[in-house]
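Re-run requested by the PI after the first attempt was lost when the workstation crashed. Everything re-entered from the original request form. Ligand of interest: dinuclear copper ion.
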Amino acid sequence: MRLFRYSTQLTRFARAAAALAGVPLLSGCFWLDGPQSTFDPNGPVARHQMDLFYVTCWVSLVIFVLVGSVLAYTMIRFRARGEADLHAEPPEQGHGNPLVEMSLIGGSVLALVVIAIPTLREIWYSYEVPVEDKANAYEVTATGYQWWFKFDYPGEKAQTDDGSGKAVAAPFTTANELVIPAGRPVHVNLRTVDVIHSFWIPKLAGKVDMMPNRANHLWILADKAGYFWGQCAEFCGESHAVMRFRVIALGPREFNDWLNAQMAPARRAPAAAESGRPRAQFAAYRAFRRNEAGFTEKFDQSPLDSWRALQLPPKDEDAALIARGRELFSSKTCASCHTVRGDGFIGVVGPELTHVGSRSTIAAGLLENNRDELHRWIHAPNEVKPGNTMWLKGYIANSIKLTPEDEDALVNYLESLK
Ligand code: CUA
């Protein structure tokens, strides 16, 4: 559509105008390529949505300028010029001008049509993978929980054991990190187990609600490999604001490698590492500090590379400490809510943790996944994400108490799960 091309050309002007107008007011947020910016689309769906935004924006701007000019003209032209004007009789009252009224109605209808046609077009476009790409589409299911996201890969079969050590197939799920093939359309089924959530990846697509008893979906396509921020966009309770996730798009080969690694049961730290230097012990973290500063300074420089580094096995491991962590995972009832395939843990209330060490974030995208933050999270989850289930139904309900040594062992175990 010509209008789109036109609007895209005007984008540059809009950015300049936004920058000029917003300097004092929005100096912190007008950088239009921020991690959650819809002005920096990385896929066709987001691009179409941005184009539609500009169509609406330009139509509104034209109306604003027209109405504003007429108003300004009237105010100046017919203003009271002196004492005499203030006491003058009101002018003769008219009863409408058919020509003006019909043109106003006609103009409004035209403006609505100009907005409605591309709007409908984009609603249809963003609803379903285009027919010609359907055969190539990859399918995942995203499920909202208070307050985290579960991702199922219905086309994949993971491995676990049946207790006797025999390998059996299991459904494959992961949490808070949706890894997708780049350059390939991905059909995302949207579900929820509790309240209404909304699935939004600003640079790829969104938002579509995840509603109880309703099968919604959307589709996304990342142009190339990348690391994208996602977020729940519907108020869903106490910790809605910290219900985030990440999308990692990978080229076909890397995506396959990732899938194969994730299909495997939980990794065991090599026994040889037992002779290695034991890791430094942690002091308990009492105060919760938001991680934003650290995250942007270090991780954000190249989030995709940082993510890749996390896929590799840790360098120095203390196998004895990890084994102790595995024991605690069971004795402290973590296993009743979390699955770790291959270690015999099959809980489904919380996120699957079979490969949690390979994810870049914990606590639904809030904290960077490193030893300090893992420690902070399991030490006082309620300080990080108020009202969360792990705290209320785990720690409180089961009176779980962890010593700093317990926490250290658990952190080492979780970190070993690459
Ligand atoms: Cu889930 Cu807001």
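Saved to the shared folder this time. Residues 1-8, 280-298 have pLDDT under 50 and may be disordered.
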